[in-house]
Amino acid sequence: MRKILVALLLLTPLFLKAEPRREEYNIVVHVVGSRLLTACIPNGAGNFCNHMQSLTAVIDGKKVTLESNEKSDALLKTGDYNAKFVQEKPTPDYEQRIEYELLFHDGKTHKYIVVEILHE
């Protein structure tokens, strides 16, 4: 009986996903455009294709393009979303690799990387 109880206590965190802390999502991402990109990988029977979201957005006054690596078959609605800075991976001085996590009204999150920075 003790073994079962210990196993349940150890496995419980795997089944319970913590809600994101909304106060961490203090960056406003203003999405002005949304589209689906098709990425195909050749395999023995032809091509395996997925759709991914690509967003045109404004973050801190800079126009950027964000892309997700996750499969999607829906467009994200335009508007304001709260986000948090996830990481900036080490790169040479002349490059950037920036990742944000957007928080949606239902508490779900989605990660996007900056793939384009536009200067006006």
In short:
By secondary structure, the chain is mainly β.
Notes on the structure:
The radius of gyration is 19 Å and the shape is globular. It has one helix at residues 2-15; strands at 27-43, 46-59, 62-67, 79-88, 98-103, 109-118. The longest helix is centred in the first third of the chain and has 14 residues, at 2-15. It has one domain. It has one helix and six strands; from the N terminus they run αββββββ. The model has no long low-confidence stretch (mean pLDDT 85). A six-stranded antiparallel barrel has the order 1-2-3-6-5-4. The protein starts with a helix and ends with a strand. Helix content is 12%, strand content 52%. It is mainly beta and 120 residues long.
Report, as a whole number of angstroms, the end-to-end distance.
66 Å
* Total DSSP E strands: 6
Range of strand content: over 45%
Provide the helix percentage. Answer: 10-25%
